[in-house]
Amino acid sequence: MEATDLASAGRLPKSYVVRTELERILAELAEGDPVPSERDLAVRFAVARETVRQALRDLLVEGRIRRQGRGTVVSRPKLVQPLSLRSYTQNALSYGLLPGRILVGWDDVPADADTARDLEVPVGTPVMHLERVLLADGERIGLESTFLRLDRFGVLRDTYDPTTSLYAAMAALGAVLGHATERIETVLASPREAALLECTTALPLLLLHRRSIDQHGHPVERVRSLYRGDRIAFEAMLTRDTLPRS
């Protein structure tokens, strides 16, 4: 797009027009290809570098591009995680990605009111707390905090490798998931969370709260998961019972 074309865009913000043109450029590039510099784009579109910078920031947040060294390159597509009882490991493998986890902490904590309610134990009862960073091909994309009843899953201390699938380990103990309730919100990362996820505190994150129930109707887990909004998306399959009604 030439400078005259930008002028003809009327009252549309220049950063929006520049971003639209950048999306056309990205569509012609492959993953890992370099994105033109701010200076080159500013000259090409006859706009201030701050206008280009704003458009690039928007694309960074969306995960369309990423920083590499002193430049910017095209990102891989987001990992799409279905809202289902399918495990993170299964889903990552289905996309040809290598799943992984980094153990942040594994200890016993007293159950607060929400945890006690979800796990059906008295407030203050010691419960297992497992916190891990989720990886996809070595890239940090999520931070998962899981609470489990000690009387049911305390044996995992001696048998479980926290860098592997927790659901597989629970299934080996006879805990097969029957259903779950999940709520999704958008939040910004705290300084600690940003450090663990290797992102900035300005990056929108997807916050998931999950309560899982086994095949016999007993509570299995309470989970709080944070996912980088630039690296992962969620989708759900709608059935007749869940379709919106006018």
From TrEMBL:
Keyword annotations from UniProtKB, A to Z: DNA-binding, Transcription, Transcription regulation
InterPro entries hit by this protein: Bact_HTH_transcr_reg (IPR050679), Chorismate_lyase_/UTRA_dom_sf (IPR028978), Tscrpt_reg_HTH_GntR (IPR000524), UTRA (IPR011663), WH-like_DNA-bd_sf (IPR036388), WH_DNA-bd_sf (IPR036390)
BP terms from Gene Ontology: negative regulation of DNA-templated transcription
Coiled coil location: none
PROSITE patterns given in the database record: HTH_GNTR
Keyword Acetylation belongs to the record: no
Protein origin, superkingdom: Bacteria
Xref: Gene3D superfamilies: Chorismate lyase-like, Winged helix-like DNA-binding domain superfamily/Winged helix DNA-binding domain
Matches recorded under CDD domains: WHTH_GntR
Location of the HTH gntR-type domain: 11-77
An MF annotation (GO) of this entry: DNA binding
Cross-referenced Pfam families: GntR, UTRA
Protein's UniProt name: GntR family transcriptional regulator
